[in-house]
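INPUT
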Amino acid sequence: MDSTAPLAYAQAHQDDFVHELETLLRIPSVSTDPDHADDVQAAADWLAEHFRALGVADVEVLPTDGHPVVYAAHHPHDDAPTVLVYGHYDVQPPDPLDEWDHPPFEPTRVNGDLVARGACDDKGQMLMHVKALEAYLKSDTTPPVNLTFLIEGEEEVGSQHLSEVLDTYADRLDADLVLVSDTSMLAEGQPTVVYGLRGLAYVELTMQGPNRDLHSGLYGGAVENPINALSQLLADLHDENHHVTIPGFYDDVRPLTDEERAAIADLPFDEAHWLDEIGLDTARTENGYSILEAISVRPTLDVNGIWGGYTGEGAKTVLPAAAHAKVSMRLVPDQEPEAIYDALEEALQSRVPDTMTLTVERLHGGQPVLVEPDQPIMQAAAAALNATFDREPVFVRHGGSIPIIAEFQQRLGLDSVLMGFGLESDAIHSPNEKFGLDRYAKGIETIIHYYPELAKRLA
Amino acid sequence: MDSTAPLAYAQAHQDDFVHELETLLRIPSVSTDPDHADDVQAAADWLAEHFRALGVADVEVLPTDGHPVVYAAHHPHDDAPTVLVYGHYDVQPPDPLDEWDHPPFEPTRVNGDLVARGACDDKGQMLMHVKALEAYLKSDTTPPVNLTFLIEGEEEVGSQHLSEVLDTYADRLDADLVLVSDTSMLAEGQPTVVYGLRGLAYVELTMQGPNRDLHSGLYGGAVENPINALSQLLADLHDENHHVTIPGFYDDVRPLTDEERAAIADLPFDEAHWLDEIGLDTARTENGYSILEAISVRPTLDVNGIWGGYTGEGAKTVLPAAAHAKVSMRLVPDQEPEAIYDALEEALQSRVPDTMTLTVERLHGGQPVLVEPDQPIMQAAAAALNATFDREPVFVRHGGSIPIIAEFQQRLGLDSVLMGFGLESDAIHSPNEKFGLDRYAKGIETIIHYYPELAKRLA
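OUTPUT
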């Protein structure tokens, strides 16, 4: 179980690894936008071809009713542990485009970072796993574990069809764990294993008033305005203590133990730096919770988008027929998305003025996740990270959502090891998303270490 | 002062009059949109050429720092009253485009109506005045009054440069009154003179939070959301009785007398029909006021547009850096726009959360107007309307705003006669704007009657 040769190969080929990532980043595989469907397919095909070029024999682009899933398996052993590597090749939309310093799909190297949509989330982090396998194969070293890759194209739109794939191909997906790099480190140089994720419930609201746009001079004063009404509805979703006011919203939230709160307080998290980096003087959390608690272990509600009426240049005195918003809630154990959807819908509908109708469309959701940190698959991650960074990793719960991680638990009975190399300053989902090339290299190194650390512990 | 010949000419040439209106409606003179600047100029040039073709000698397209003003004068008398005809050749933007049954700039005749952007507001109503003059000139009848036309191209963006024109060309604008057709009739077949208009104060708000769009999973819970905060700000602008909560907002509102309220209650206004026509079961007025009061003599606040975050297809989990809204207030005597702007700004800024900055841009405003209904210039209008419609006109205060009417009072000392032929169902500022061809004809007839009625009273 010697990883010297793969590590040397990775070090020698780092430039090639970056070039290949740049090639993948040039494909604008925006999964939410129907205009980019061909690009999403192209990214899947590129990845499958890349596996084949490494000599992986069992490679398939699995079709779904949405975007395809790339499957690749390299199983050199009959009785070794099997790692199911999960990642995604789709990306968020790049807008607002005019806030990018460089075109989002023309990767640009800036001060040791690679700037592009998807650089961190998740093309860069996903490709590290492919490159780690390459380092074994091309250095003529048999990886000490079996590897199955499942790389999807719908993570950014709620992994709508991956659950079907898990069911349909369950016999090919037998494994000991899921290994994922799609999360962040707590700070630069601080290796981090994520053992919890927030869930998600995402809706689109349409508030409909009169049957057409009206002149605000002729009708204003006697016709309730859908934007005013929607604003009221959204405002009422929080109280003055920044608690969510949906009845029952917190009922199933598992209380934090004193030990958990103490562990969170002990984490090396610099509140001032965190605020400074996003241009704020002050955080706004639920009363009684720290920033780190609020962004990781507490549920939230945010308006992600709003639109209605005249939004062009200048002034138009319209009293609009309708107003729209996108609203999402981050959920924590043991909140259930379906129950939360129902509670939100009931709360909203009970507050709709009688001159309006409200439509609530459920866009996508996912359950929160907790993984027991003391088990061997997690301790192998800690050892691999320590070997690379020469620093003890921390175990944290993360505020983001990867809905499919709960599905792996439910459908395949597999826990996930969330070993990510992002930083919050990587600006994922924002303009000027980036990924540090040093972290790309260290991620590959860590994964090369992980295989023998896992094999040793599961022997 | 016989108007038999002009009336006969107008009747005989009604088809031509409609064709000419259609030609003007094909020019997309959207004043708020810089992309349409050439079209706005083209509409001005078309109108000037049209005056010249009628034989009006003194015609000029007056340049301004914005869109030009068309000036035309026909003064056959040394000592007759002079009518200053005001109108506008610019139009509102046509969006939302997909709600039009026919293209907005391809006028279409539907059941006796002409459907097009500007058909009623104000190209159709403005052109009636040109056609009335034509009816005199082409029937070899000297109009019994002097006529000066001032037709601007910035009414829909607040008449920003017309005040300068009033000052610069004051010596050419000497007159006894301003005559305007840019308002509505209270109901089909009910001739109406408007003796009051609401003023306007229109702002654009930008609520700025963090320095960039953030991932709602990584930051949600500890960063105040600009859309949530703007929603709260907008919601707080009304209380549960639908009063505007800006301190001092109502201070200068002239109280309604019992006589005024009784006169409004006596007007032939069908609340059920009014509601039905816009698809509502219930109005929402300030507590204690009727629909007609609320839309004409009470001040209001409406959000005209709102936008922020992700507004495209599907789901994007963004916590946006900023949110925006357009907000306008309709003002009544004796509210002053500048004082109201200040009060709004103070109210908003005092409620901005400390993690946000709010920018308030004043887009355009105008003062409310009241004209004494018993004076000869108004009674001449009543007589002309009665002659055409065979029905006694009503005098009403109107909820819309024509900011320049207050300027005519202040800068030229002139009262305005607001004799309009629109209907609320004409959907001005909305998709499928229209104007009834019968009303176009009756408007021209009324104006032909107005000249001798005025000359008689001011003799």
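end of record. The longest helix of chain B spans residues 437-458.
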